[in-house]
Design brief:
83% of the residues lie in helices and 0% in strands. Helix 1 packs across helix 10, helix 6 crosses helix 8 and helix 7 runs antiparallel to helix 8. The N and C termini lie far apart (45 Å).
Length: 210
C-alpha cells in the first residue's frame, strides 16, 4: 500500500517519466528497424556477409549497458545530449533480434514460391516487396517484439546519464535506500514491457493468420 500511495502522490512526475521512457524506447526501436531490417535483407541475399554482420551485433550484446554508455560519451555530438546517447545505445542493443529474425524470415520463404514469382515475370524488387517480406513479416515482428522488451528494460539505465525515464525513480530509490521509490519505477517499467510484448505479439499473430 505504501508503494501505491507513493505512486498516487507522485503521479504527475510518474506520468512524465513514463512518457520519457516511451520516447526513448519508441525512437530507438524505429532507428533499429530502419537499420536492422535492410541489413537482414542484405545478408539473406548475400550469405557471405552473414557472419561478419551477425558477429558484430553479437559483440554489441556482450557489452554491459553502462559500459556502452561510457564508450559513447566521448562522441561530441552525442555526449552533449543524454537522450541522443541513450537512443543510440538502445538502438544498438535492439539490432540483433531484428537483423537475425529478418534474415531467418527471408531465408525461410519457400523456394518454390520464389520460382513461381519469377515465372510470373516478377523482378527481384517485386519479389522482395510482394512475396518475401509479406511472408516473413510475422517472423520479423517477432524480432521487433524481443527488441522492444529488451529496450524497455535497458532504458531504465539511461537515467544514469541523465536521459530520464523510469530509471530516475529506481536510481533515486537506490541512493535513498527506499523500496517505495525503486518500485515506483520498476513496476511501471515491467508493465510497459508486458504491454509491449502482448501488443506486438497480437500484431504478429494477426499478420501470420492473414
Amino acid at each position: 500500500m505504501n508503494v501505491v500511495r507513493f505512486m498516487v502522490e507522485n503521479r504527475t512526475q510518474l506520468v512524465e517519466q513514463t512518457l520519457e521512457h516511451l520516447w526513448l524506447v519508441g525512437v530507438s526501436t524505429v532507428f533499429a528497424m530502419l537499420i536492422g531490417i535492410p541489413l537482414g535483407i542484405v545478408i539473406a541475399h548475400r550469405p557471405r556477409l552473414n557472419k561478419p554482420v551477425l558477429a558484430s551485433v553479437n559483440i554489441i550484446q556482450t557489452i554491459p549497458g553502462l559500459a556502452l554508455f561510457a564508450f559513447l560519451l566521448p562522441v561530441r555530438w552525442l555526449g552533449a545530449r543524454a537522450d541522443r546517447l541513450a537512443i543510440l545505445a538502445l538502438a544498438l542493443y535492439a539490432l540483433l533480434p531484428i537483423i537475425r529474425n529478418t534474415y531467418t524470415g527471408i531465408c525461410g520463404v519457400d523456394p518454390a514460391v520464389l520460382e513461381a514469382g519469377r515465372g510470373m515475370g516478377l523482378t527481384q524488387s517485386q519479389l522482395l516487396f510482394q512475396v518475401e517480406l509479406p511472408l516473413a513479416v510475422s517472423v520479423i515482428l517477432s524480432g521487433v517484439r524481443v527488441a522492444v522488451v529488451i529496450s524497455v528494460g535497458l532504458a531504465t539505465i539511461a537515467a544514469a546519464i541523465g536521459a530520464g525515464g523510469l530509471g530516475e525513480f529506481i536510481f533515486r530509490g537506490l541512493s535513498m535506500v527506499d523500496n517505495r521509490v525503486i518500485l515506483a519505477g520498476a513496476i511501471p517499467a515491467a508493465i510497459l514491457a508486458l504491454l509491449a510484448d502482448v501488443g506486438v505479439g497480437w500484431l504478429e499473430r494477426h499478420l501470420r493468420t492473414r
